[in-house]
Amino acid sequence: MTTTAPGARSANSPISTPVKREITTKPRFSDKVFRGVATAGGLSSLVILGLILIFLGYQGFQVLRSEGFGFITGSNWQVMQDNAGNTDLAASTFGIAAMLIGTLLCAAMAVVIAVPISVLCALYLTFYAPQLLKKIMVAVIDLMAAFPSILFGMWGFFILMPHVEYWGRLIHKYFSWIPLFKMEIPVFTRSPFVAGVVLAIMIIPIITSVSREIFSQTPLDRVQAAYALGATRWSMIRAVVIPYGRSGVVGGAMLGLGRAMGETVAVYTVLNLVYQINWHVLIGAGGNVASMILLKFGEAGPTETRALMAAGLVLFLLTLLVNSIANTIVSRTGGKGR
Amino acid sequence: MINPNEDGNDEMETKTTPSSLSDVANATKARKQPGSGALGVGLEARGIHAWFGDKLVLRDISLDFWSGTVTALIGPSGCGKSTFIRTLNRMHEFIPGAAMAGEVLLNGQDIYEQGTDVTKIRLKVGMVFQKPNPFPSMTIADNVLAGLKLAQLKTENKDDLLEECLERAGLWNEVKDRLNAYGGSLSGGQQQRLCIARSLAVRPEVLLMDEPCSALDPGSTLKIEETIQHLSSSMTIIIVTHNMQQAARVSDYTGFFLSDGGPGELVEVGPTSEIFSRPKDTRTENYVTGRFG
Question: Would the pTM of this model clear 0.90, i.e. be above it?
């Protein structure tokens, strides 16, 4: 009788490739139920988004077909009526180029202003602020994120606007060599610059919250490693916290950008909507798709409403595009710091 | 005693096959004695107490660490060994509510003196942590030189320093062809040696190691121990370990810490061979012979 040691294969047993067994896990009933609920929740957001897209596409289709590319390249918005008082689609022109560019311009300016402030604020709260002050500030900032946007608009209108001429002149005096800050008509109020500042203040809480969250998750062992190498707090932040939090900050900035692009009332309050492409941010003439929809919606006839729906569709797609570009950037650069 | 059927792939077992820890401790290397071969007192702890909040966790620890020697600190978990070495380079104070009393003298200067530049202290007293923690956003080369950047030091020739540090940490041959790979691409043991190389780049006088091998496999542990042996000739090394074999293999002196539920205390310190063969305190004897802990 031969014996083999436990666990040892006897030397002369043939080695053949065994048939792969099917590995299955049968979920329990409760698991199935929960999976169903979670799936329904997940899908419903997608379905709602899809329905909105379909609705906007359906409503705007007629106008988009009649205008073609002119809808996003032209900047004329004229409703013509025939003798019977009906809107004549063929004679009317709808173009939102000025509004689209205005939207991007204001939102980009808001992000450029808000990101440095938010990052510094988040760093201060995470690494420098005393506990009590930190608690108070976090509460205030979170409150700011939930603030009604009309209040920001009113603040911009009553407080910021009277002072912006001074700022505008200052920037114009020293930076007019940058085409963006060129000033041909001296109208400073209700400019994209004002709208950008108001939007910046609106998105600072979002970007600060997201950044603070990610900074506070910096792995402690890396922080300690930096300190143990004689790092000052600043050099530790630069070497460890920023690389770790970079992708989170970009994500926060994208959330902010999304909000800035879709913002309606606050921009409507402080911006002069002009149907002309204007790159000069200091001049009181700009555009914003959402605000334009708000401006026109009340008095629009059926055809113009369809045109506004089409404008909404374009804004929707633009936001989607910007967000997916941002996501790509985050996933390309994000991995290294982790 | 050794099972003949075992195929002997446990490297360390076959290398030393110790019958007792004291044999290991005696056989490891010629002992350095204070004054003979040692370079003088590198670091002195004087009456160290430490608190977390109101809780006293260390009572009255006084220890001298001689330059050019390795001191191992052993003891059961929770006896304050790690807390103690963290007081030696002022890492203790990062824990909220942490406090200490006593003095730590580096070359005769108290590192807790008012107005001391803490970052300079940490450059002179480097630290290697339990878990390998290279900076994942940096390449291998940048990791080694990270200390220079963090502490804003200048160096003449970065390439030479890079090679020297990796060489001393016993990693050069394994990474010389991929210095621009990210630190996270290395194995755990390699990462830990990268962290050692990183601490060496700022030329510390003292190196604190907090259970540097506890997360590593035996092969990597052996490599790190060799590295410690190499380094010990030129600097003061203090290593916290749970592995008594390791303490016996690498250290010249051993300190035994114990807590009886209250604050941790230093029970006994002496040349490693004596601690493992003729301990003066019965508690030490019980611990090193494995009767508790």
Answer: no
